[in-house]
C-alpha cells in the first residue's frame, strides 16, 4: 500500500484546505439583484440593488391571508440560497418600509407571503412576483436568482396587470427636451411599446412607439404610470452639475 511522504502529506493537507475554503466561499456567496416592491395604490416601498444568499426570516401568526388554520408559527425560517423571497427578506432587515413582513410556514410546499410594510393580501389582492419581467409561476422561495436579475413584488388583483418599464438618460440640460421610452410587459414577459403613458415631466403621453419628450428644470426622479398598470422603475435624471459615479 503506498504511503504518503511528509511532503506529499503536507501537499495533500494544503489541497484539502483549499477545497474546504473554496466550498465555504461558495456557501456564503451573495448574489446581487435588483429589487422593486410596490404596495397598494402603486406605492413604491423599495427599489434598489442588494446582495442576497441564504437568509433567516421570521414567520408570523398574523399571516392569515390564506384562510383559517394557515397562520405562521412565529418561528424563524431559513431560505436557502439566493431566491426572490430571500431577497425580499434580506431587504426587510434594513428597510423599515418593508416591515412588518408577514410570512406563513403553514404549507409543506414553502413559505406564503401575506403582508409587506402594512400592505396585506386579501381575497381580491395578492403579492405578485415577476423576475426579469416574467411571472415564474413558483413560490418566491423556490425562485433561484442569478446576478443581475430584476425582481418585482407588487400587491395586485388577478388577472394581473401589465408592468411598465422606463428608460431615460442619466443627465439632461435644463429646459432642453430629451427623449424617454416606456415598454409594458405582460404576465408572460412579452414586451411592447406602452402607449398613452404619463411620464414625470413629459410634454405629452407616450406615442405609438412608447416615446415622449421630457423637459426638466432641476434634477428629478422620473417614473411612468398608466391606469392600473404596475408603475415603472424610477430613473434619476441629473440636471446641471452631476456627481461623479463611482
What does this protein structure show overall?
The structure is a single chain. With 246 residues, the chain is an alpha+beta fold. It is 14% helix and 35% strand. It has helices at residues 6-28, 84-94; strands at 31-38, 44-52, 55-58, 76-79, 101-104, 112-116, 119-120, 125-131, 150-157, 163-167, 171-172, 178-185, 191-193, 198-199, 211-214, 220-222, 224-225, 235-239. The strands form 6 sheets. It has a 4-stranded mixed sheet with strand order 2-1-9-8. Strands 10, 12, 13 and 15 form a 4-stranded antiparallel sheet that branches. Strand 12 and strand 13 (191-193) form a beta hairpin. It starts with 5 loop residues before the first helix and ends in a 7-residue tail after the last strand. Mean pLDDT is 90; it is low at 1-27.
